[in-house]
Structure formats: structure tokens, C-alpha cells
Design brief:
CATH topology of the largest domain: Glutathione S-transferase Yfyf (Class Pi), Chain A, domain 2
Order of helices and strands: EHEHEEHHHHH
Radius of gyration: 17 Å
Number of domains: 2
CATH architecture of the largest domain: Up-down Bundle
Shape: globular
Low-confidence stretches: none
Structural class: alpha+beta
Length: about 210
């Protein structure tokens, strides 16, 4: 297998952490999003959506999207379990994992892309020709504030987002939170539960990826 990766981007980091938590060693091939390598013919021949990460199997099959890579690897390597041991736990993990992607990762991306010169003609991931909209910077900021309020509430009720143990939901939320910090939207200073959780999950060896 081979992971098509971009070391500075949060979505590929989700896959790297998941792979590390599984104790797997999968070679990586770097593709620069900032330089537009993900939109070049060589990469589009692998993933015509132009997004990262992508997992290429030994027979040439390509699995796109981080949650789909999660599912494939969990099926092959069920321990340690990261997606749920029973239907209810799986549903809770998936709900928070999806929330972290849609209301965290996507909101921060909206804030970041719409004020970054390198993405003037690439306001959305995976393709060119969509112009940035400066007004969406503030909307992104407001969406991220909602994301942080919901994290703080949940983490006041539960040690981890999916429940009593670390899961894929925490991986995606960690990548979103760290992405936010990198672009100027850190965890609010009075969000004590989120700060406790962030210190915990950041200390895991896999999170260094």
C-alpha cells in the first residue's frame, strides 16, 4: 500500500494518525496542495477528485477520503478498535467524527482559504476555478466558535468525544483543532474541558504524525 499525503494539511494527518494508532507502516508519497500538485495530471490520474489523502492498494485500487480509509484499515486490522465495538458506540463515534469534519475542519478551511492568496482561484478543495469570497472569512470564524462551544459541552460530559475511550472522532477533532490553532483560531482560553482533552490526545505517540 501507499498513502498519498500532504504533510501540512489536516485531512491527510487524520489518516497518518489512524495508521500510527493501528501500528501500521505504510509508505507515504508527498503531494503539495499549496503548489497545486494535487491538481496536476499525474495525481489526477490516481485520484480524479484531486483531494488528499488517498490510499493506493497493491493491486492499484485507490481509496479516497479519510473516513473511508479508516473503514478499510479497521476491517483489515480490527485492533485497537477505533470505530466502535457495538452499533451504538459506532454511531456515536461516527456522529462526532462527522461533526468534527463538517463543523470543524470545513469551517476552518472556509476561514483559511478565503483569505489566503495561494487559494484565490481554489476556494474549495480538489479543483480550481472557484474564486474565494472574503465575506466567508467571518462566517468561517463564527462556525468555528460554534464548533468549540459544542466540543466544550461534550467534553464536560465525556472524557473523549465518542465516549469513554479514544476513537476516530478524537483523531478528526484533534486535526481540526490543531488546524484552527495554526491559522489563528485556537481553543478559547476558558474552554477547560477541551484544553484537558487536547493535552491528553496530543500526548499520544500517534498524534505526533
Amino acid at each position: 500500500m501507499k498513502l498519498y499525503d500532504c504533510s501540512m494539511a489536516p485531512n491527510p494527518r487524520r489518516a497518518r494518525i489512524f495508521i500510527a494508532e493501528k501500528g501500521l507502516d505504510i509508505p507515504r508519497h508527498e503531494v503539495s496542495i499549496l503548489d497545486g500538485e494535487n491538481l496536476a495530471p499525474a495525481y489526477l490520474a490516481i485520484n480524479p477528485w484531486g483531494t488528499l489523502p488517498a490510499l493506493e492498494l497493491d493491486d492499484g485500487t485507490v481509496i479516497t477520503e479519510a473516513p473511508c480509509i479508516f473503514r478499510y484499515l479497521e476491517a483489515l486490522h480490527p485492533e485497537p478498535n477505533l470505530l466502535g465495538r457495538d452499533p451504538l458506540e459506532a454511531a456515536r463515534i461516527e456522529a462526532w467524527e462527522r461533526f468534527a469534519e463538517m463543523n470543524g475542519m470545513a469551517a476552518i478551511g472556509e476561514f483559511f482559504r478565503n483569505q489566503t492568496d495561494a487559494f484565490t482561484d481554489r476556494a474549495l478543495p480538489g479543483y480550481a476555478g472557484v474564486k474565494t469570497v472574503p465575506a466567508l472569512v467571518e462566517r468561517g470564524r463564527q462556525r468555528v466558535a460554534f464548533f468549540h462551544r459544542q466540543l466544550e459541552k461534550r467534553l464536560g460530559e465525556s472524557p473523549y468525544l465518542g465516549g469513554a475511550r479514544f476513537s476516530a472522532a478524537d483523531i478528526t477533532a484533534l486535526c481540526a483543532v490543531d488546524f484552527g490553532h495554526a491559522v489563528g483560531l485556537p481553543i478559547p482560553a476558558d474552554n477547560a474541558h477541551t484544553l484537558r482533552w487536547h493535552a491528553d490526545v496530543s500526548a499520544r505517540p500517534g498524534s505526533a504524525n
